[in-house]
Amino acid sequence: MIVKECTLAEIQHLVKEYLQGLSSPFDSFLEEHILSSTYYLIQDDSNDVGYLAIHNKERLTQFYIRRSYQMHAQKLFLQALERHSIKFLFVPTCDELLISLAVDQDFAINKQAYFFQDSLVSVSAGLGDGEVFRLATQGDLQQIQQVCGDFLDQYDQWIARGELFVYYRNADLLGIGLIGMSKMFDRLASIGMFTNDTYRKQGVGKVIIIQLRNWCNQNGIIPVSGCWYYNEASKRTLESGGMVTRTRLLNMEVTKK
């Protein structure tokens, strides 16, 4: 077997196979780590066997072997860990092959995040008197920065891409919503929100999530979302807005026996 560094474009056919084999999608957090990884193509003579992705020279973010070569998966996996001195792995539970290979090694497991999908159940939460939910414009930028602080980088670019929404009650900005289009999945977007500190625990986040779900459904986009595993407040908000989770992101540590 030959393992060589490559570009994402060179393994796009393998990435497509990998994504099609997942039991559920993942959100922008894992996607960003994958897209900023270094890629390696695995070949048997001229045949493409699979690929792996390594983030920041220490974290494995993807490991895919085609079905016809999966009898070699355990050996190739261990070789990849040793050759690249892997210290950590991001393992989504929707990736059956990778989670199985990692569990084989009894690595230390830390729970990193929940990944959510649309429940496909309608949840009602209409806008009240004087309330509006709409795409943000550059005219909203100053108030967004004042209310949301460093929640995001480059608010102006989110606005320019048409991926940032504002939720007002009269002149008061209650919160913002985000729809970040996936670069890996077709017609899929990660949704998220930030609530003005003054209006927390008043159902603002729930309304934003419902409005984002509605916008996605009206535009033929599949919404997903995620939150840190121990952020119970975000988990409750997403669930109240109609999102459900069956997938976890595990942060595994390569430990020596």
UniProtKB/TrEMBL annotation:
It comes from the Bacteria. It holds the Pfam family Acetyltransf_19. Gene3D superfamilies: 3.40.630.30, 3.40.630.80. InterPro entries: Acetyltransf_19, Acyl_CoA_acyltransferase. Residues 9-119 form the Acetyltransferase (GNAT) domain. Signal peptide: none annotated. This is GNAT family N-acetyltransferase. The lineage of its organism: Bacteria, Bacillati, Bacillota, Bacilli, Bacillales.
